[in-house]
Amino acid sequence: MIRLHDDFWNIRGSFKIAKVIDIGTHMSLVRRPNGRFIIVDSYSLAGDELAEVMALTDEGKAVDAILNVHPFHTIHCQTLKDALPHAKMIGTRRHRQEVPDLDWDSASIEDVATQSGFMDALEFSTPRGVDFVSADDSVHVASVLVRHRASGIVHVDDTINVLMPPAILKSLFPEPRLRFHPMLKKALEERSGAADDYAEWARDLAQEWAGTPAVCAAHSAIRELDEGQWEAEILEALDNVDDILADHRAKFG
């Protein structure tokens, strides 16, 4: 459990593919201005991390809601709800479809009306021009990005990754970089203007969340940023997918 700000903690977790390759996962704990708490994403807490969360949150009774912001991250939801039964469990529409027996709140986190209930502590952004839920279950490009207002820290699942250079290349590329999801090509909506909508969203995100000091990415790492790096690296990530967007424009207009 890593404290990145007086009111923001990130918990790094384990998630193994085929029970062998650990690609990691995470969740964040946010203290609201009124002293109560929000959790972003679900992870099966245990041991010292569970004890720390319980100690901070009056044995979980001070947690208002658990916001599950990636439609394909469903595995840990039931376990966390069992640990924090007082909290509202809010997910996407896909969460309710995939885990129907869980006591979900009727609200959906991809809806602006739902997000407005947490604007005292958080900002939200959802990429435009891509399918929020792809017909291909392997395409996990879209999610609801979350930014902590007090600190500027960004919590993101899959949509933005922290690219870690291999050890052998560290002399050439010593720093990690922010990159958009590598399956963007498969996620773009099959319509005219989708590529432009995505690019516009990325440019808006770079500007509107300028000053972000750190990015907590689900399957990679926490990336600490210097002044101006967020904007520069998001625009660099956009340049990195320019060929994908150009191909889409050529095909769909």
Provide a descriptive summary of the structure in words:
This protein is of the alpha/beta class. The protein has one domain (2-252): Ribonuclease Z/Hydroxyacylglutathione hydrolase-like (Metallo-beta-lactamase, Chain A, 4-Layer Sandwich). The chain is 27% helix and 26% strand. It is built from eight helices and 16 strands. It has helices at residues 47-56, 77-83, 93-98, 112-115, 184-187, 194-208, 229-240, 242-252; strands at 2-5, 8-13, 16-17, 21-22, 25-31, 37-40, 63-67, 88-91, 104-108, 122-125, 145-148, 154-156, 160-163, 177-180, 214-217, 222-224. Helix 6 (194-208) runs antiparallel to helix 7 and helix 6 packs antiparallel against helix 8 (242-252). The protein is globular and about 55 Å long. The model is unreliable at 166-170 (pLDDT under 50).
Tag the structure with descriptive keywords.
single chain, 253 residues, alpha/beta, Metallo-beta-lactamase, Chain A, seven-stranded mixed β-sheet, five-stranded mixed β-sheet, 8 helices, 26% strand, globular
Give the topology.
Layout: E1 2-5, E2 8-13, E3 16-17, E4 21-22, E5 25-31, E6 37-40, H1 47-56, E7 63-67, H2 77-83, E8 88-91, H3 93-98, E9 104-108, H4 112-115, E10 122-125, E11 145-148, E12 154-156, E13 160-163, E14 177-180, H5 184-187, H6 194-208, E15 214-217, E16 222-224, H7 229-240, H8 242-252
Parallel strand pairs: 6-7, 7-8, 8-9, 12-15
Antiparallel strand pairs: 1-2, 2-5, 3-4, 5-6, 10-11, 11-12, 13-14, 15-16
Proportion of beta-strand residues: 25-35%
- CATH T-level topology: Metallo-beta-lactamase, Chain A
Please state the structural category.
Answer: alpha/beta
Q: Shape from CA axes?
A: globular
CATH H-level superfamily title? Ribonuclease Z/Hydroxyacylglutathione hydrolase-like
Number of helices: 8
Q: How many domains make up the coordinates?
A: 1
The major β-sheet equals: 7 strands, mixed
* CATH class group: Alpha Beta
Radius of gyration from the CA trace?
18 Å
Biggest sheet strand order reads 1-2-5-6-7-8-9
The string of secondary-structure elements, in order, is EEEEEEHEHEHEHEEEEEHHEEHH
Mean pLDDT: 90
Uncertain runs are 166-170
In which range does the helix fraction lie? 25-40%
CATH-defined architecture: 4-Layer Sandwich
How many strand elements? 16
CA-CA gap between termini: 46 Å
